[in-house]
User: What shape does this take?
Amino acid sequence: MTGLALKMLFGDTAKYLMLVAGLFLATFLIVQQASVFSGLMLWTTSTLKNVNVPIYVVEERVEQVNEVNPLRDTDVARVRSVSAVRWAMPLYSGIQRVRIDDGSLKTVQLLGIDSASLVGAPTRMIAGNLEDLRLPNTVVIDELASTRLAKDPKHPIKIGDRFEINDIEARVVGICLASRSFTGGPYIWTTYERALQYTPASRKMLSAVLAAPVEGMTPDAAAKEIMRTTGLRAYVNRGFSRNPDDFNTSTVWWYVRNTGIPISFGTTVIIGFIVGTAISCQTFYAFVLDNLKHLGALKAMGMSNLRLSFMLLLQSATVGSIGFGIGLLFTSFFARWAITNQQPPFYLSWQVPVVAFVVIQGICMVSALLGIIRLSLYEPAMVFRA
Assistant: This one.
């Protein structure tokens, strides 16, 4: 029975290819768009990964990491005075302009960290010495900056090269690996004091206070104590969860609620679902109609409706698996291209293909169900009358 079902499916080449094409397109759109959306949401939290500390203390109205409402310099001492805090260090974070050798200006994400402890410094150095960041007019750049800020991308920036940040000289003493910024620009680290020199002066410059809990206390408990004592907003820096005090979660949900990004990607996913459903349902129903006489003959020979239904379900599941596999293969080609070019953002979690497979098979089951209903209404005697 299985062999007969597959022979009937592959024998109608035109409809078989149409089914595969529709399900391939649906799979590709669903997986590719969901993965680009996931990658984009990860980019929104890149600063949290690049400045990896347990607790972020920010102004009380801040909801996401890319929003900066400056604090007073005295807020560092206020956080340090909390009994639950082991240490607290200043952080400057802001978008600045870099002038490269050809005179053009590039946008970068500038991070200023404590010069004594270097808390918040990059952890994945690939060239240079992090300790040299304490020397005058020095910076550490990420790998993207080494090509983005070079006059010729084929000749990336090396240790010892210089450029200007807001017309003030900066010398490269280190190159690191870092998560990509949501703005698309590279990251540059320097000391907090030097970051203030690179930045146009304003009344308040402190972006956040980086902190860690005392031994024996969890970051969550310490964050609550900081908020109770200082009135500032303290977020915990860890992976995604349902806890609103997690800065990653708060940041992603802010972008979901306040931007059109989810609607844009969601619309494409819905279109993919509708196209896949329309093509597969219509084509598979036409396939059943074309083979109705053969299926009716099997029914007249004594094959039960249950076994005939199994044949149609097997055919739909087979074409669904093939279409899904081809769609996933093309998504992997797109992923390789995106990673090589460092854009667009792309992150494929295991949940995405699993959900896509369930959706595709669901479309196929609906298509098979339409055929089963039509077949159940077909009387075997009609075969002989024909």
About this structure: Residues 2-42+261-385 form one domain. Residues 8 and 291 are 8 Å apart (CA to CA). The mean pLDDT is 85.
